[in-house]
Amino acid sequence: EDQVTQSPEALRLQEGESSSLNCSYTVSGLRGLFWYRQDPGKGPEFLFTLYSAGEEKEKERLKATLTKKESFLHITAPKPEDSATYLCAVQSYGGSQGNLIFGKGTKLSVKP
Amino acid sequence: DAGVIQSPRHEVTEMGQEVTLRCKPISGHDYLFWYRQTMMRGLELLIYFNNNVPIDDSGMPEDRFSAKMPNASFSTLKIQPSEPRDSAVYFCASSSNRGGTEAFFGQGTRLTVV
Hints:
A: six-stranded mixed beta sheet
């Protein structure tokens, strides 16, 4: 069964304090790993797609990396506006083909 | 494109009543997904369609839930009769193909059953 586990559940940072969020996964053949950002009262907003181990993607202060078992979302010098819940999801070739299996997310709070 | 559009944004109903949630996917997208989000279980897939045809409804919790997609630009999720445990945020999402392409989400419908 495809599974996604995110850690920590919540993370509090001071503005400028860099850190990383973890997404561990087990899938029957990874088609893609996705990172989303969700603000309160809104739908998840797409950030990145990673397809193979060793791949990296960057967007502003965010950098996503992928290994065969996990993905990290690195946040460099975060700002208060980076506060949100970050969701990781996987899509597999087998099992639940065609749909995204989500982790429960990491709630990030960045204090000024 | 305006993105995925869901209505209503909020719905409060009494137990036993019928509830219908609506979704308009992004034009040109041939996959449509219905998700439910709760604090306890996170985002769970209920059902998804490809070219208006239901492909996997194994996530639909009970026979009280049903979903339709009569055409490429409209889908509904119906709960009849509704129960308090159905209270959650329901999201619709669409994507352009199945293989490794991101899904775009609507703003969600917050359902409260009292």
